[in-house]
Amino acid sequence: MTNKQRYVEKNSMLVKEFDRYILEHPEFADSLPDNALVVMQIEGDEEFNNWARETAQSVAEKDNPVVYVTITELKPVRSRIERLKLESVA
Questions:
Q1: What is the pLDDT of residues 43-87, one digit of tens each?
Q2: Please, what is the end-to-end C-alpha distance for the chain in angstroms?
Q3: What's the domain count of the chain?
Q4: Rounded to whole angstroms, how far apart are CA atoms 13 and 59?
Q5: Helix (H) or strand (E) segment spanning residue 18
Q6: Which of 48, 49, 81, 87 has CA 20 to 30 A from 73's CA?
Q7: Residue range(s) defining the domain that contains residue 25
Q8: What is the pLDDT, as a whole number, of residue 21?
Q9: Residue 69's beta-bridge partner residues?
């Protein structure tokens, strides 16, 4: 897997987490300018951050604002499953 592919996957995961955050904290969304291009950043990951900024610059539309959202702390990914049921077939 190339760096670009890793960064695309990481960005996708961060956008999903950001969407969840916005659903839980709608007041944060109010601070975003209308039609803004949101660029995900991770504190301490300069290679990813540079890639994200460069990618954003290449796709940003002229009159749309660009905002950087820097994630300073991210909890470990874990399952939300409370219980499972397993059925053996054959």
A1: 999 999 999 999 999 999 989 999 999 999 988 888 888 999 999
A2: 37
A3: 1
A4: 20
A5: helix 3-24
A6: 81
A7: 3-71
A8: 93
A9: 40
